[in-house]
Amino acid sequence: MNSVIVCHCVVVRDHEIRTEVRLGADTVEAVGARCGAGTVCGGCREAVAETIIDEVTRGRSLADDGVAATARH
Ligand code: FES
């Protein structure tokens, strides 16, 4: 899997953040509570937020595809 470290203090990769988003964490605070990202120096919080937004947007896009696929049958 191609992933990058988003939070260097706690060594949290983007795929870990994306997993937490899919499990219901939709804020930087919620992600931090679950995996520790953004809870030390705070320097990655913007990158954590961008990853959350990207995953939420991606999830909605996939859901839209599912609706479209269902509608076609
Ligand atoms: S880089 Fe994430 S808390 Fe410091």
Notable characteristics:
73 residues, Arc Repressor Mutant, subunit A, two-stranded antiparallel ribbon, binds FE2/S2 (inorganic) cluster, mainly alpha
Task: Produce the secondary structure layout.
Layout: E1 5-7, E2 12-13, H1 14-22, H2 28-35, H3 45-72
Antiparallel strand pairs: 1-2
Helix pairs in contact: 1-3
Bound molecules: FE2/S2 (inorganic) cluster.
Please outline what is shown here:
62% of the residues lie in helices and 7% in strands.
Description:
The chain is mostly helical and 73 residues long. Helix content is 62%, strand content 7%. The protein has a two-stranded antiparallel sheet. A hairpin with a 4-residue loop joins strand 1 (5-7) and strand 2. Helix 1 (14-22) packs across helix 3. The longest helix is centred in the C-terminal third of the chain and has 28 residues, at 45-72. The protein is elongated. Bound molecules: FE2/S2 (inorganic) cluster. The site of FE2/S2 (inorganic) cluster has 11 residues, from loops.
